[in-house]
Amino acid sequence: MNRRGFIARGGALVVSFSLLPRLAAAQAGKLPGSLNNEPMLDAWIRVGADGRITVFTGKAELGQGIKTALIQVAAEELVVEPARIELVTADTARTPDEQYTAGSQSMQESGTAIMNAAAQTRALLADLAAKRLGVPVERLTIRDGAMNGISYGELVAGQSLHVRAQAKSPLRDPMTRTVMGKPLPRVDIPAKLTGQTIYVQDLRLPGMVHARMLLPPSYGARLRALDTAATAKMPGVLKVVRDGGFVALVAEREFQAISAVRALAQGAQWDERANLPESKEIYQKIRTLPSQNTVIHENGKSGAGPAMLEAEYRRPYQMHGSIGPSCALALYRDEALTVWTHSQGVYPLRGALAELTGMPRDRIHCIHMEGAGCYGHNAADDAAADAALVARALPGRPVRVQWMREDEHGWEPYGPAMLSKARGRVDASGKVEDFQYEVWSNTHSTRPGPAGYLAPGWHVEKPFTPPPPRAIPQPAGGGDRNAIPLYKFANARVVHHFVTEMPLRVSALRGLGAYMNIFSIESFMDELAAAARADPVEFRLRHLEDPRAQAVVRTAAERFGWATWKKSPGRGRGFGFARYKNLAAYTAVACELEVDRDSGRLRIGRVVAANDSGDIVNPDGIANQIEGGIVQSTSWTLHEAVGFDHSHITSRDWGGYPILRFPDLPQSVEVHLVNRPGQPFLGTGEAAQGPTAAALANAFADATGTRLRELPFTAARVRQALGA
């Protein structure tokens, strides 16, 4: 018998009776993961009399493969084939309330809850089987949803699994696993490859009508006049829905709605204001805007002593850039509202819609469907609010709202522009004896919740006011996420300047402030290493005390061939490392690139990453997330910046907001995983972006002897830096 109380025999599982009293006894303390918020087992796992197993999660599939991983977790602990499990995601009528799918926390929160709920459900079933057969529990053999030949369905017949979860669970020993830790093909991919209705953009309902929004041309624009007479006579037009500055055109067919809203726009008159700062002066503006200044980390006596190295880093506003513009469907019938949405938080959205419409919360049903691109708080919630308001004006008919590209680019909440400043000094032994870091940033969270965070709520006749901006507290942080280095410095001080005015609309973009802070700190670590005349990898290792951090740094360096890599003219190597939020996944990235001085183009060669996300459920899923993070970060770092003038967002299409193209992809990407069976899940989706940006910046400096400290590294910026 192993330490978990199980015996593995030829793939079967024998449960030790000693576990059941521990399960049945009341446990004090916090429950694992999201069980702490929803403690009833049948809120997570239901076994039907026909043997069907349904698993529920409040998290949403956003393309990160979470459905596959959660199915694997449940299948492992229930000892069934994954194909026997149906997973229900993010539905306010069916699933637990897990707030948002964000922050790489789905496995930590929902995965942990489902793993423990499944283990406790299995133990309850074992108790039922032992009583029915009159045998000790340790004599039971579990094979694919049956105990000694009695199916789970037979065992639960007439029984209730509406039982409160306990703090301790009889988890399977990681050494006996047959499903977790093994590659499993993504369950969401076949429907996407065969064109089935999996994206909300593809959903079609009987009797559905199409709506297009007439959005204001700029922030603060007010609708002065609207001529609807000509538009109302166009083919297929059903209605112009107006509430103050909120205007939607509804038609029977989609192109009829597009044509009509364009005609409607010609007759709209807006009062606009030049209320945006000069884009070239945005960093100076951020520094001078009102801010709440907080020392978030301090040790030793930072600031004393001789002159220090000093550097400033800059990040522009950046978009989610969703390939599919936001979409939602809504149906208002019998004084109840159903909304199909790709919101990352169906329960918070339901609350915001209740406030916006004045409806009781329990009369609103929000159902998650995937959207073609997300990575944070984009316009999905706005489109859902649009659909809800329009559907209320057309009871009984499903309304589909599809934003246009210019709507998405011009009105989505952006990742905030940020400014950081680092100062540091190394001592005679080559160690950092003083480190100072400051970061300026707006809020990184304006998610609904409140109706005032929904753009349609600003445009209605009686508008909703956004709440005051809020900072996300440490240790997770918002603009100050990863602003505290994981490295051990003798003296250190970190200050977060939380800028309370927001010139542009901002909210959560993947990783929040971590991308910028890791780019800044890891760039500066290379500058400090140069001052110490030390190898950048060795320099990092001498300041790391966490063995798991050291392991991923060494793994990435070794697999890249850091020690034997040969430098040549115009070609450099770079390294970046971070532990996401200083409490989640560890990721190190090494890369090489070539710089074309004449064109300013950067050609990325090999990229090698090492990752420790704790207990691995699906290695392919984690590798895919790291690869995707590297590609996304490459696009952010080389290309992406929102353009604007004093009145308007000018990045209204892909020409005005260029993203990574296939010729600019890294030549190769390798991901090496460090598995920690039995350790907590650490999440993966936002772990690679910061280290990748830093590795690219450090490779550029290695190749050219010139350092770029302002994102993105466009060809024009490269040529200017090199004097070309």
Task: Report what the structure shows.
With 724 residues, the chain is α+β, with helices and mostly antiparallel strands. It has three domains: 6-186, Aldehyde Oxidoreductase, domain 4 (2-Layer Sandwich), CATH 3.30.365; 200-272 and 320-411, Aldehyde Oxidoreductase, domain 4, CATH 3.30.365.10; 418-444 and 479-722, Aldehyde oxidase/xanthine dehydrogenase, molybdopterin binding domain (Aldehyde Oxidoreductase, domain 4). It contains 18 helices and 25 strands. The strands form seven sheets. The chain has a seven-stranded mixed beta sheet. Helix 9 crosses helix 10 (380-393), helix 13 (514-531) runs parallel beside helix 17 and helix 16 (619-638) packs across helix 17. The N and C termini lie far apart (70 Å).
Quick structural gist:
The protein is α+β, with helices and mostly antiparallel strands and 724 residues long. It is built from 18 helices and 25 strands.
Which terms summarize this structure?
seven-stranded mixed beta sheet; 724 residues; globular; single chain; five-stranded mixed beta sheet; Aldehyde Oxidoreductase, domain 4; alpha+beta; 18 helices; 3 domains; disordered N terminus
